[in-house]
Amino acid sequence: MLSKIRKKYGRYWQLYVFLILPVIYFAIFQYWPMFGLQIAFKKFTITKGIWGSPWVGLKYFRKFFTAYQFRNVLTNTLTLSFYSLLASFPFPILFALILNTVEHQRSKKLVQTITYMPHFISVVVLVGIMMQIFHPMIGLYGHVMKNLTGTMPGDLFAKPEAFPHLYVWSGVWQNFGYNSIIYIAALTSVPAELHEAAQVDGASRFQRVVHVDFPALLPTVTIMLILRMGHIMSIGFEKTYLMQNSLNLSRSEIISTFVYKIGLGSGASNDYSYSTAIGMFNSVVNLLLITSVNWISRRVSENSLW
């Protein structure tokens, strides 16, 4: 038995050595913190610690489900998540298909570089830029609207109905170029013979995109969609929190900001057990979503994560 294991793993031992650091990272930062999930079922206090705190069962889950903020927070989270998915998911695919038709390599690389750059802008800097551009008095938006209407426009950051649009479309602009990398890489694996055969049959460039390039992308698109569905409830905290204010709170309060305010942002009244219970609920819903979408994908097509 030992000889078989040595023969199987000893041949490529260098590759397994490379895996040590990632395994340690995931063990420390991904799996070990799961030990603390038990405080969602306890009345946790720092002085008593995790083991010494008394069990309270599902008290904090019931507290969240019956809270007056529950419906609003859940609705805002799902609205922003699905709006972001519908708006941002197709753009990288379309961009990759269009860029793949460009034959001039220098122009292609220039466009790629320009569209990748916004992804590396810090979220703090991005929100600062947005606040400057959409400022009703000194921003570009304010000047344009004043010239068109003759009056100073209202502050978009103070309008709850404007928050989802500002959040989603700024994200589309920032990330569509970077997110297209995986689709561009998938398109490079399309055999040139397929395009040549389509050309011989008289197919136009658009027809080749539809009947050759897009089918080649479908497996990648399916996998990326499944992965995105696993993060539906985990919409970005930093950007939402930075864009949030007391005037748009009715549309900007989501689960991640709600958890932060309860667990860390309440000063002496921080409720770690309550915030952990909400975070656990969030993770369970994400797990159910990614499992369901993967099962549907496996039944409908041959593409799935497992």
| Number of distinct helices | 18
- Tell me which CATH architecture applies here: Orthogonal Bundle
| SSE pattern, N- to C-terminal | HHHHHHHHHHHHHHHHHH
The residue ranges in which pLDDT falls below 50 over 5 or more consecutive positions are: none
When the domains are counted, the total is 1
What does the average pLDDT come to? 87
Q: Given this structure, which CATH class is correct?
A: Mainly Alpha
Strand content: under 5%
Q: Which class best fits the helix and strand makeup?
A: mainly alpha
**Euclidean distance between termini CA atoms:** 29 Å
Helical coverage, percent range: 55-70%
The CATH homologous superfamily is termed MetI-like
Architecture overview:
The structure is a single chain. The chain is an all-alpha fold and 306 residues long. The chain has a single domain, classed as MetI-like fold, CATH 1.10.3720.10. Helix content is 68%, strand content 0%. The chain is built from 18 helices and no strands. It has helices at 2-10, 13-18, 20-31, 49-52, 59-66, 70-88, 90-100, 105-116, 123-133, 140-149, 163-179, 181-187, 192-200, 205-229, 237-243, 249-252, 255-263, 272-300. The chain is flat and about 75 Å long. 19% of the residues are buried. The model has no long low-confidence stretch (mean pLDDT 87).
Write the layout of secondary structure elements.
Blueprint: H1 2-10, H2 13-18, H3 20-31, H4 49-52, H5 59-66, H6 70-88, H7 90-100, H8 105-116, H9 123-133, H10 140-149, H11 163-179, H12 181-187, H13 192-200, H14 205-229, H15 237-243, H16 249-252, H17 255-263, H18 272-300
Helix pairs in contact: 5-18, 6-11, 7-12, 8-11, 12-14, 14-18, 17-18
